[in-house]
Design brief:
alpha/beta; Rossmann fold; five-stranded parallel β-sheet; 31 helices; elongated
């Protein structure tokens, strides 16, 4: 097999006269920078903006502006499966500055006349029965480890190293560019002995390149081992296949090109539930690798010279091609990361900028793509068949990020009560309470309260004049019959002999005409509003005392309608902290005590209808309460009649939150990336056609306050 340097020389010899910029700072780039001669490598690029300006093998990492000035071609040095995604990220350099971009095999990226759209058939899942049949047909079965039997709950290749950087700050108060230095050290080891080194070799190299004392360096190495163990996650469906092979009395071996020591890998395997194997073969300890085929030569000629062998792994070259060169049958199971790269979700990887997002992305990747099998004859394609997975992957990050921010806001403002507005608060109240339970028990001053309310309740209780009635219609639209307007908005019945009663009331088009229709009902509307206000104040007094409590409203958003009208009837100044909010001068109520995590340009705001169809309660809209605090609700709508599906999605959101908490005891101190969480939620719109139709048909547009009809949300 040709070396990286030989292949590069063959593919790019025609460009020796040109300036060349290499995209990527991994071991392949380090080898090229060290071994290439006759080429004008004038700089490097990397996806992480924090690395701009740093030096790797004597070459500076450039930003886009510097790249545009170098009159250079760009060569993407990366795994083949990542190269198209990287091209998407930097294609703007071609569009804006005419930069020529090439893949590592010498192909011009511009030959992709369009950036490839999602091909659902590119998601290759293997038929489970086929794998079982292969196991039955062979005597010796071997499995790869990382990407096959187990995954890391972190998406980026340097994700664990970024977590170590965070730990260095937490433990030593040391701000150190560890991830960059750690990758450089491994690159040196890879150059000297590809895949034939151990963790100790990496840290010895790191010690030679840094001024960190040996004792502290050893503690950092132990930290890396601890994090590797903590973030290791079982690939349960593959482990079931492994267990099947063990139960069939096959000889089962584990083979990995890995730098972690044998004893660490054994601990990791025990943690993820892998036991009963016969041998564990590690390249770093044997001095043989799958990547160059040397381990397969030894395996087939010395270990099992006449046996019928099958190997199962995720790397096309190391696990399949090199094994089959040595008469070992190979079965490729795509790892969860590679499966994700074949879907639109790959676009979210560009937003993985901080360790917390890498963990979120890793958890999502393993949730959605941990199972490489299909039980159908048609093995290919991406579908979402599980409500819990939808909640976990698409709603989990944005809800968790919001709740952590809400906690910090409440703590900083010395809030003792968070009023979670119905019906979104049905879920958010319980999640926030559980989140508080995982924070230091001494900090128990914040209470989560499910506030039974609605725009209809808050507005009606605040109506004191005829102008208030018309102002409410100007600010919040309505479409339906005049009869429905009277009943649903104002709680009064229209007269049977009213000639307008069945006419369409569309406040966006005929508000002045509606005003005339309403004239005779004004006294009744105001009497009803006064009664509703008195009853509502009685309820509010049971959960909030303005003389003792400092509260904040929590809601999806957006204008702060409930906040404004409740403050009006209480003569109070309760603030609002929402998922999304209009906070500038365009706020229709002129609120300056309102904050939102996401803006009007966010993916959340664009698809708020989807969010609200899931983050809801089992009851109909709150209409009013009587003088005993008993509530009257509107009719159950589509989202409520399908609430069993919502509960499963809610369970997925909760699981995501608990997984994030379990991986980081200091979760409440972290700063999560709301852009990543928002982008992930926005992906739900992209993949909506691939949601199982039975699930998809339970999502409804539901806004009983503004219109009487409802519709299923269609792709």
């Amino acid at each position: 097999m040709k070396s990286i340097t030989e292949s590069f020389c063959e593919n790019f010899a025609r460009f020796k006269h040109r300036n060349i910029i290499l995209y990527g700072i991994g071991f392949q780039t380090q080898i090229l920078c060290t071994e290439l001669s006759g080429f004008r490598i004038v700089g490097l690029m990397d996806h992480n903006p924090e690395n701009v300006g740093k030096i790797v093998c004597g070459k500076k990492i450039l930003d886009s502006a510097e790249v545009a000035l170098r009159d250079a071609i760009i060569v993407i040095i990366s795994k083949e499966e990542n190269q198209v995604r990287i091209y998407r990220d930097i294609k703007h350099l071609t569009d804006s500055h005419g930069c020529e971009i090439f893949f590592q095999n010498g192909q011009s990226a511009s030959l992709l006349t369009e950036v490839q759209e999602f091909d659902n058939k590119a998601v290759k899942r293997v038929n489970r029965k086929r794998v079982i049949d292969l196991i039955d047909a062979h005597d010796i079965i071997s499995f790869d480890l990382f990407g096959t039997l187990l995954e890391r709950n972190v998406s980026r290749p340097d994700g664990v190293f970024r977590l170590i950087e965070r730990c260095l700050v937490d433990t030593f108060g040391l701000s150190y560019d560890f991830a960059f230095k750690r990758m450089q050290a491994e690159g040196v080891c890879m150059t000297k002995a590809p895949f034939r080194y151990l963790l100790g070799d990496i840290y010895r190299t790191l010690g030679e390149e840094s001024d960190i004392p040996v004792e502290k360096l050893n503690r950092i190495k132990d930290m890396e081992i601890s994090l590797e163990l903590k973030y290791a996650s079982p690939r349960l469906d593959v482990i079931r296949i492994f267990n099947y092979a063990v139960s069939r009395k096959k000889t089962v071996n584990l083979i990995s090109d890995m730098y972690l020591p044998m004893e660490v890998l054994k601990q990791m395997l025990k943690k993820v539930g892998v036991s009963g194997y016969d041998n564990l073969l590690i390249s770093g300890e044997l001095g043989l690798t799958k990547q160059d085929g040397s381990i397969w030569v030894d395996y087939s000629q010395d270990f099992y010279p006449s046996a019928n062998c099958l190997h199962i792994g995720d790397n096309l070259i190391a696990d399949c091609n090199e094994a089959e060169k040595n008469s070992i049958r190979a079965c490729l199971l795509m790892n969860s990361y590679d499966l994700m790269l074949e879907t639109p979700l790959r676009e979210t990887l560009a937003n993985v900028r901080i360790p917390e997002s890498a963990v979120m992305s890793g958890l999502i990747c393993n949730c959605l793509f941990g199972n490489p099998f299909s039980d159908d004859k048609e093995c290919d394609g991406f579908t979402l068949n599980c409500c819990m997975d939808i909640g976990y992957a698409f709603f989990g990050p944005i809800v968790f990020d919001y709740l952590v921010r809400l906690y910090k806001y409440a703590k900083g403002m010395k809030i003792n009560k968070v009023l979670f507005c119905a019906r979104e608060g049905y879920l958010l109240t319980s999640l926030f309470t559980e989140l508080l339970d995982h924070i230091d028990k001494k900090d128990s001053t914040i209470a989560a309260v499910y506030f039974k309310t609605s725009r209809r309740m808050a507005i009606n209780a605040s109506l004191a004049t005829e102008d208030d009635i018309y102002e409410s219609l100007r600010k919040i639209r309505f479409y339906g019959t005049f009869s429905d307007l009277l009943k649903n908005r104002f709680g009064v019945e229209g007269r049977a002999d009213d000639e307008h009663i069945e006419l369409i009331a569309n406040t966006r088009e005929n508000l002045e005409e509606i005003r005339k229709w309403l004239a005779e009902y004004i006294p009744e509307i105001l009497r009803n509003a006064s009664e509703e206000k008195e009853n509502y104040l009685g309820y509010i007094s049971t959960i909030y005392d303005k003389t003792l409590d400092k509260a904040v409203f929590s809601d999806v958003g957006f204008h702060g309608t409930i906040q404004h009208h409740i403050n009006k009837i209480l003569d109070d100044d309760i603030h609002g902290f929402y998922l999304t909010a209009l906070t500038d001068e365009e706020n229709p109520y002129g609120l300056d005590n309102i904050q939102g995590v996401h803006s009007v340009s966010s993916e959340l705001y664009k698809a708020l209808y989807l969010f609200e169809s899931v983050i809801t309660g089992p009851e109909g809209m709150y209409l009013k309460c009587d003088n005993r605090g008993r509530f009257i609700n509107g009719p159950l709508r589509g989202n409520q009649m399908n609430f069993e599906y919502k509960k499963q999605i809610h369970s997925g959101i909760r699981k995501f939150m608990l997984d994030m908490i379990s991986l980081d005891s200091r979760f409440a101190d972290r700063s999560y990336d709301s852009v990543f969480a928002d982008r992930m939620f926005g992906m739900l719109v992209r993949v909506y056609p691939f949601i199982n139709s039975e699930i998809r048909d339970t999502f409804y547009y539901d806004n009983f306050f503004t219109r009487t009809d409802e519709n299923v949300i269609r792709p």
